[in-house]
Every structure is written in C-alpha cells, then in structure tokens.
Amino acid sequence: MQERVPLPTSPPRQRRRWSYNRFQQRAAPYLFTSPFFILFLIFGLFPLGFSLFLAFHLWNPLDGLGNWEYVGWDNFKLALGAPDQFWVSLKITVWIGLLSGVPQHLVALPLAFVINQALRRWQSGISTILFLPYITNAVAITIVFGMLFSENLGLLNYGLSLVGLGPVRWLALPELVPVSVATVVFWRYVGWNVILYLSGLQAISEDVYEAATVDGANNVQKFFYITLPLLRPMMFYAFTLTIVGNMQLFEEPFILLGQAGGSGGAALTSAMHIFNVAFRDLDMGYGSAMAWLLFLAIFILSMINNYLFSRGGGRS
Amino acid sequence: MKKIALFALVSALLAGSASAQEKVTVTVAAFPSLDTSIKAVLPAWNKLHPNITIKLVAQEFADHHNAMTTALATGQGLPDVMALEIGYVGKFAEGKGLEDLNKAPYNATQYKKLFTPFTVAQATSSDKRFIAMPTDIGPGTLLYRKDVLDKAGVDPAQLNKSWESYIAAGKTIKAKTGASLINTAQSIYGVVSRTNLKPGEGIYFDSKNNLLVGPDNARFVRAFTLAKQVRAEGLDAKIGEWSNEWYDAFKQGTVASQFSGAWLTGALESWMAPDTKGMWRVENLPEGGYASWGGSFYAIPTAAKNKQWAWEFIKFMTMDKAQQLTAFTINGAFPALLTAQNDNLFSQGVAFLGNQKARVLWRDAARKTQPIDVNKYDSVADQIVNTELTNVLEQGKDIKQALTDARAQILRRAR
Q: Which residue numbers delimit the ABC transmembrane type-1 domain (chain A) (predicted)?
C-alpha cells in the first residue's frame, strides 16, 4: 500500500513538532559539547582578549571598569626599555629554566632507558613512585624544601656540618637562590619526564633491540644508535613541555621565597613579576603587556626548539 | 533561579513588614588576625542589634586584598565593610571605588580628632578624600633581649642613643655573647628610611609626587651606609623575617634586638617564643625616631548594599572605647582610638616584658609619629630600592651608584 503524498501547499504538521530523534541528531551534540565552549569563552577567550585590550591601556583596577586610558604601545616600550625589571626577570626565568630543565632530561632519559631495559618487572611500581612528585601539591613540596634549605635548621646544612662545611645560605645568597629553586623544579618534574620517555620507549619495537642484540650491540650502543634516534618525537614533545612550563614558573619560587622572589629578587621569575605588577602595583596594562611579551618569548623558544629538532635529525 | 530569587524577595518583604524591625545581613570582609578582633566584639554587637547579622568573610592576607581589588574592578561581589591593611590603604585611597567618609551621611570629619593623628592621614587620598576609618595601629619600638644585654654589659640606652652607638653596642654584644645585633641589615635601612621625615615627605615620594630616592638624598644614603656597615662588621644574622630561622633566633636569643610594631610582643608571647617570657624589653627607636609598623582600617565600597549598617558597624568597631579595648585585650590590636589609649589598662605592666609599662611607651610613640605621605607607586619604589640594597650588601655595589640606578628605574615606572 502506498502512502498518500502530502500536498505542497500544506506542509505536514509532524515536521514542526518536537521530535526526540531530531533533537538527538541535530542539537544534542552541540548541547553536550557546549559547556566546554561556554567555559572557554568566559574563562579562556574573554580574558585573552581583555588582556590584549589592557596591554594598550593604563588601568588601575581600583578605578573600576571603563576608567582606562589609551596609551598605545607605551606599556610595551616600558617593558622593553633597557634597565627594566622585565628583562632581568626574563633572564632569571631562562637561567632557572636551564638549571632545572637540562638536568631533568639528562637524568630522565637514561633512567627511563634503564627502567625499560633492566627493571621491567618493577616498572609500574617505579613509575608510580616517580610520578608522585608531579601530582603532589606544590605548596607542600615547597614547604618541605624550605625546611631542607633552611640555613640554621635545615637538613642540608646539617649534612654539610657533619663533614665540617659551614652553613650555606641556600635561600639568601643571590647566586644560590636560583639553584635552590631549580632543585625543587628538577625534583618535581624529573619523574614526569621519565614517564614520558618510558611511554616513548615502549613504542619502539622489541624486534629492533633483538636484532641489535643478535648483531652483538651492547646497552650503550643500543641507547645511542636505537633509542635516541627513535625517541626523537617524544623528546621534542618533552622539551617543548619543559620550555613552556619553565618559562611560566611561578608556584615554586613564590612559595619558597615570597612575593619579592627572595634576596634582591634573585628568583623573581617573569610570571611572578607580572603578578606583582598587576596585583601589587595595580598596573594592569603594564602587566598585560609583559604577559604578551612572555607569550612571545615562549613562542620564539618553542620555534627554536622545533627548528633544532627538524634540522638535526633529517626528519623524513 | 529567578523564581527562587523572587520568592526570597517577596518572603523577605513579608517578613520585613511582619516584624517591626528589619532583618539585615552586613557582609564584612577581613583578613587574619583582624578577623579575631571582629569575632571578639561580635557578641556585644549582637546584643545591641539582634536583627543585624554580621557575616564575616575572612581570607588570607594577600587573597583578601586581591579579592577586594577584583571586586572593586568589576563592581561585583563587594562586601558592605571592607577591611584594609596599611600596606594597601594608600593604593585603595587613590582608587575611585570607596566612599568618601568626609561627606554626608557619614560626616566623619568631626571624628578625626578622636584618633591617633598619623593614622588619619594614612587613610586620606591626595585629593583629601577620607576613605577608611582606622581601627588599630602599630607603634614602632625597639625590642631587645635584656638577658643578652646584661651578659654583654651593655646599657640599653646605648642601643637607641644614636645609630653609631647602636652599632658600637652591637660589636660589644657580638664579642661578649656571640649574639647578633639584628636579624638582617635590611632592617636598619627600613627604620632609617622611615623615620625623621620632614613634613610633606613620604618614604619615597613627597606630597607633590616628587621622587625622593637618589644619591643626593641624605636619608637614603645614610640608610644604605648604616646597613652596609652592619653587614660589613658581621653584626647581622642574615635572617629574613617570617622565616623559621627568625622564630628560632627569638627562642634561642641569638639575635639581641628587633625593630617592630607593638604587636610583635603579642606574637612572641602567643606562638613565636612563649618560653622567653620576662627576657624582653622595649624602648624607643634610635635617635628619637618614631615610625609605625602596621595598622588596619575599615572602608565602605561605593557599590555596597547596606551602607547605613556598614557605617554603624564601623563606628562600633572604631569609636566605641569598650570594643577597641576588647580587641586589644583579646587580639593585641593596639587601639587607634585615643580615649581607649587612656584606659587604666595602659598603665599596667606587660608580664611578657618583665612587667615593663610598655603600653605607655607605645602610646607615646604613636602620638609622636608624624603622618607619612603615601603614594600609589610606593610598592614599586619599595621593591626597586630593596633590590638595590641587596646589590650593595651582597655584591658590594657602590651606594651612590645603587641609588642612582634605583632612581632611574622608579622614574620609569611611576607614570
């Protein structure tokens, strides 16, 4: 039996009626993904746009919304001027980043290799232990390290005193403060990098290693001729994360040394300086301008990292 | 959501007309340990105004002031009463979001003479708006370990006769007892740069916004020179404030003196070093200098909902002698109100200070402290000058050069 075809002059009523199936197909995906987009608009895109807007204005938040003054590129010029704290803080950030970042990878990579090769049986247990610092609260970590570094009461100086060495001013001497901060950062993220490298290592086929063993390669040769080249994509990823993370370093020095970044601001990172300018000095425009400059710095460093990786390895 | 709000509003209105007195909730935002003072007087307030509930919102010190900054920026989530600490009151005064208490209906001009003079000036903006009522102050004195001085055979008067005699005393103390004179050389800079200001001068800027920091300013040159001298003689323990070493030094008596507000005595007694009871004494700062360490204020945001009751509450906290004394006895908050300072309580000895009549000394110091002009770039200058001082102390940078550099940097930032 054939159904009657509706006349074009009178569209069927069903079509206009709310249908669960139609809702499922057309609207539901948007509805269910909307929380992310709504949250992103409010907490992601809006602050981003607002800070770009503020970067060109002079604004004291205590004056309320609307009471800002357009100053053009003045905030950027101020930050880029020769003796400005922005440069100093950027130098400090890069220095602490290098002090903590380079050893992180130098230790994490061989460690992951050893775990992968020799300690397979305990791998999950070791991974858990290595991952603990990463998931532990930064405040707790920093307080514990604060006690370790303590000049007269710290464990570190107590150990030194046993071998007859005088107390070291870990958290007061401007030259040592970045080292102390870098130690905390190193300790916190080295496990994270080991996990990254472990997962990268597990993607390398066993066959390659077996073939190498048959050919008589030892562990060192395997590491340099198989592991390192095949791990490049993961190394690139891990390096990029370290660069981005270290350039935004805030929690560790802030809690360890306070808002001023310790003796003479020796560990006043860019992120801390931006925070101070915006929320202590209430100069939101200048703070925003520096935040964008920091973004630019991170972007450039990531690009350099990208360039070095694509150049050195003959990426195919 | 709207329906619930409407229902709440209607029922509130009904309840309001039903009972003779309206029920109001006044939100008070504060920080530790000012919240302790507020809690201490709440019973008295509730007895007087049973229908006016005080909702106290206390956050950590920096969190509180950040939250208040954000609230003022957006006009959202503002309390009815906003507590402000001395380090922030100058900045908040220059903003536009707080009520001018000089104006009606507050008319606070008439009350200003009731308070310690310098604290009123701190809450006054450069265009003469009075934005907050003072509640407690921190008269500055020199706290010293009597037992250490006795052991070294040093007369306490030598500590505060002059800065030179202070350093000389430090050498004797170091030689005889091994104790340091002061926690850090930076403290010397802190006192010298904050005392003996000329009228119309702030620490870093004068009342006309001229920068005072520089190689030609005698006050800064002296402050840097004395700090460097103390460091060079090995008289400071190189300990930062609010560190474990600092508390330990108080407990062990390894540091002989400390410049501070009157409140430090309370902190020592309650948690820092309770076992050192009776070993401490206070005296005035060297060279007849008077300065204040700390102080708290209450302000009303322009966008607050219950301004009338907010003002009543502030008056209760700041101008009621009984409440000021309650906060003093329970929380050690030194009253800003002059009549409270004249209470008998002040002529009693302080047990922790070996029954010394220290409160009279603090009161005297508070009344002699001159108003210091505050500037919205004070925090910028403070950071830059302190960094340069560290360069002098730690890297041996030339003092004149350090002050020249500091001046150039502050001038760039103070736009």
A: 90-305
